[in-house]
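Kindly go through one protein, given below as sequence and tokens. The question is how this chain folds according to its tokens.

***
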Amino acid sequence: MHLLHANDSAGQHAESWYNATSEHQQYPQLQSSIDTEVCVIGGGYTGLGAALQLARSGVKVVVLEAHRVGWGASGRNGGQLGTGLNLHQDTLEKQLGMAQAKQLWQFCEDAKTNIQSICQQYDIDIEYTPGVVTALHRKRFVAAHHAYCNKLRDEYGYDQIHTLDQSELEARVCSHRYFGGSVDNGAGHIHPLKLAQGLAKAAASAGASLFELSQVNNIDYATGDISTRHAKINAKHIILACNGYIDELDPTFSRRVFPINNFMLATAPLGERAAEILPFNDAVADSKFVVNYYRLSKDGRLLFGGGENYGYRFPSDMARTVRRAMLSVFPQLHDCKIDYTWGGTLAITANRLPVIRRLNDRCLAAGGYSGHGVALSSMVGQAMANAILGDSRTLKLLENLPNRPFPGGPRLRPALQTMAMTAAKTLDFF
């Protein structure tokens, strides 16, 4: 079974609140064989970011998307435009040294600014709202987290993050579930599918050729020949931007990423009750291994993500799974109607750092953002595009991120990974 077809109808976006509140521009299916300078495989943030950069530099670029642009994690995620990588700076300092850690920090800061700049330039309304709260579900986590916030202020000059004690946290997140945390006003939350669709429109306007319903079946990396069901493409350069859906397109890359399924719901509009749960309209992510993440929508719904699994199939009881997680945080919403429930697939890595690799002289690949892809992925796409254009400085920085393959061979690896992730979930009870 191919993950691309395990849970959704071909060419149809997930039945999400995002889908219901977006205007969909469709792109044609590739029906004839063509030659191109660059072929980008995957119509999410990474691929679209690369295509936009290449197209506005005058390069002939083709984007192939198996379903619709933004169909995968780019159009289904929690919408949190976060700060940094999914690994603390002090850990990066130990692994890479202070100089490289600070370069990566600046890359992540530039990634946030880059999205705002693109949206302003191409008039993309992503419904940006500042404020992301980290909510700590264990009292013993508070001191270390506050110390890290102070480190970012003192050593990185980042003054947008502010520590919260328990009472201050409860003033922003009206739940008795947490013991403190922080609020990051340099981060925010967005409508993720509108970002993906806006990037696609911008890339097309700059000259990129976008094709939907054009799943790649085979790649000859030596010749640059790429096959879909209806056509062949020959490309001088290839960018693999498939994230958790890369499967058999490149076995060496797929060993380093592990697809996991996450689930979300959208309540009915809460009216005045919205201000009674999130009065500052922050997005929130908690400290659990299986993270609960949530925020209010523009029309006053609670968008809540919680629960995950590690097989190909989404569970039949997604609504029950996520509702249980929501009520553990906000039991006062026990009578609230659920209007939308959906699942999505993201990719994690063994150490939660993204994988950016030059597979050969012709092909670049990236993925495994481990929950931080909203800000990072389009900037990673631009870095790969710039390398093709002749500037590899940023790509070299990203290629140096330490990564290791998950253990086991092709058949054993999924079972080992599932066992490890299932065991790790028990940490949430201690």
User: Anything to note?
Assistant: Residues 93 and 108 are 15 Å apart (CA to CA). The chain has a mean pLDDT of 93. The longest helix spans residues 98-121.
